[in-house]
Description:
Blueprint: H1 2-11, H2 22-41, H3 44-60, H4 62-65, H5 71-89, H6 91-98, H7 109-122, H8 126-137, H9 142-149, H10 153-175
Helix pairs in contact: 1-3, 2-3, 2-5, 2-8, 3-5, 5-9, 8-9, 8-10, 9-10
Amino acid sequence: MEHALRLGAVLTQDTSVTGERFEDFFELEHERLLRALYLVTGNRPEAEDIMQEAFIKVLERWDTVRFMDDPTGYLYRTAMNTFRTRYRRGLTALRRLVSLAPRERDLFQEVEVREDIRRSLSALTPRQRAAVVLTDFLGYSSDEAAELMGIKASTVRVLAFQARARLRSTDGEAHD
C-alpha cells in the first residue's frame, strides 16, 4: 500500500522535458509487466508489489532511463532483481505459507488452465520460472531474456531447457 501511495504521488508530477512522459511509459508497460510477474511469482499481490517497486525505481531515474535504447528492458531487469531480492530474503516463502489455504476450482476452463499453469510453474526454481516465462510466454529471445535477468544467454537457454523438462515430467505425473 505504501508503494501505491508513493507511486500515485509521483505520477501527478510532469516528468516530461524532451523524452517520453513517464505516465505514457507506465500505461504502455504496466499490464504486461504485471502478467509476467504473476507468472514468475504465482501470487498476484506479490506481483503487484514488485511491479510498483520496479516502476518507482524507474521513475526515480526517469531522466536517465527515458533516453536509454531499451527502457522496457531496464524496467524488466529492475523487476526481476527486485523479485530475486525478495526471494533471497525469504519473503516469498513466508507469503506462500500464508496463502496455502485450499481454493475452490472455478468451473470455467480458462481459469482451470491458468491455475494449472501457475501450479506447474510453482514447481520450478525462480530462475527457471523467469527464463521460461520470458522466452516461452513473452517471446523474448535468450539474449533479451539474459539481459533482463542479468545473466548469460547460454544460462537462460539451460534454465529454460531444464524448466521445460520439469514441466513435461510434472505434466506426465499429473495424468498418470
